[in-house]
Amino acid sequence: MLVQTVVELFKHKLVTSIIVLACWPSHDQVLLSRLFFKHEMIVTFSCDPEVLQLAHLHKLQGVLYIPSANDLFHKVKPNYFSSWFKWVVVGESLPDIFDTVRYDADVLLIKQKWDKSEPYSGISSSTNTVFIDDVYIHPNAGVSLHPWAIWTIGSGLKIVYDRNKILRRQNLEQHPIRIATPMGTYAEGWYNGTLKEYLLDMKMSHRELGVRSGYISSALMIEWLNASEVIVPTLLWGTEVNNSSMVLKLRYGTSDLGGGAIRMMPERLHKLDYPMPIWPFNVGFTYLAERESSSNMFMKPFTISVWWCTLGLFIILALAQRATAKHPVEKEGAYIAALATYLQQDASAVPEGVSGRWSFLVLSISAMLIHAYYTSAIVSALMSTGRGGPDSLRALGDSKYSIASEDYDYIRYLMFDVKTNWDDLEYLKRKKKTSSFYKEILDGVRMLRAGQTAYHTEFNQLYPHLRSFSDDQICKLQYIDTIPEVLTWVTATKNGQWTSTFRIAGAWLHEIGLADRWVTRLRLKPPPCRAALLAERVTIDDIAPVLLLTLAGAVTSLMLLGIEILIAKWKTRNTIILSKSRYNY
Length: 585
Description:
Blueprint: H1 2-12, E1 17-21, H2 26-38, E2 42-46, E3 61-65, E4 85-90, E5 106-110, E6 129-138, E7 142-152, E8 156-159, H3 162-169, E9 176-182, H4 195-200, H5 209-224, E10 228-234, H6 246-251, E11 257-258, E12 272-288, H7 304-323, H8 328-342, H9 354-384, H10 393-397, E13 402-405, H11 409-416, H12 423-432, H13 441-450, E14 453-458, H14 459-462, H15 471-475, E15 477-493, H16 499-511, H17 514-522, H18 540-584
Parallel strand pairs: 1-2, 1-3, 3-4, 4-5, 9-10, 9-11, 13-14
Antiparallel strand pairs: 5-6, 6-7, 7-8, 12-14, 12-15
Helix pairs in contact: 5-16, 7-8, 7-9
């Protein structure tokens, strides 16, 4: 009967294989294994706890412990009491070793002596009910036993006090939880207050956003667990170049939670656990870019077919204007009048006849509509034209812009002060990085405003400083990502005793919307480009073709003038010669 109880307990825990820690003879092991096999349970027997090393790291493992006088249970390593291992202890009392196991240990106690005289049913057939206790291990209060479930022959397993078990683990009774918190610019000593006051100061909410979001999330999780927080200041964030590193504090277990949100990276997966996503992180270069010039702006508004159609319409109306002319003066000026009307200029000759005036009216309306389409298309093109300038790190390396960056350890030791496998970034560093590369954000903003520097920082920290820019400058801002927007996480000690509890607390913060509200409060939007409602001003590059065309026309006019003068002089000379010839005769 006890075998059935144990099987139902492990199935309730979603366990499919069991390791039995019992120092029994081989004959007894085989007989008990057969009973478990009848219930579709795979059993491994061992007297040595080293067998727990064979358990799959990412699969729930059941452990049935039956105490005996000569067992080696004291050799069990602490990590084998993590939440991945589901323990069931069958004995008259709980062994003393459970006084010091991990907080997340999932241990159930069946306070019965295993009676092998009953053919491996475990307890006498006269006993119809089995009581199962939850073993709760508090780091301060020690071990306590609490009723959790009962098993009967008729009803099987009944979970009676599962809610009580959950509530117990949500109450750490003010046990201290250590938060490794990067100090960032607070370490410079300019803020008059404690690190906690600095992180909670909403007047400084645009600074250290990854740390603020991570610390506040950690503090809320600790508050939900009724624990007390202990801030452990660190100099570094996500790097490990010295011992004062948040990652190292978590990695070596000297802290429990990370106060700075960091990215999930392959090399960190075996060092840290990620209980809660929180902050959308985005880092890159910002610079002022001019609008892209278009040397073909005056031809772009119409397609080739529209230009041909316009030319054909002009020829037809010009011929109609000449055909309806009543006087020689009208005929001579018909083409020029049609051209002037198309260009929205004044016509020197106005037809006198009804048909001529009607054709002139049609010409004027047609020219007005075509001109309206043309000018509106140019304005639309000016409003929609993209910005010029580099759009990648390699293009930035080939551009006129110098580069500078805010000084953070993750920027130094993950990007610019180490060799990476990112070719474009390495190219940019070779071409542009100087000894004065790192600049405070105020200096960086001044350089950015001057228009010759691309400044590197987290965009959300830069946005408040952009409010001092003019509308024209704001509309010229362009961005190049070094780290595209990615969700960063609150981190914890790898396989730590609190990790599963932190995950539950983090899920609760997201479920009730508190995490989203906090991120919304901290996250800023770039200042709006109000000047985008107006068309861009035309630059000298845009009108360069027109200037060249005008200059060519002026030169041609002078050449024609010279030709006319030469022809006039030639005619005058020929006239004089002809007159003299007639006079002589």
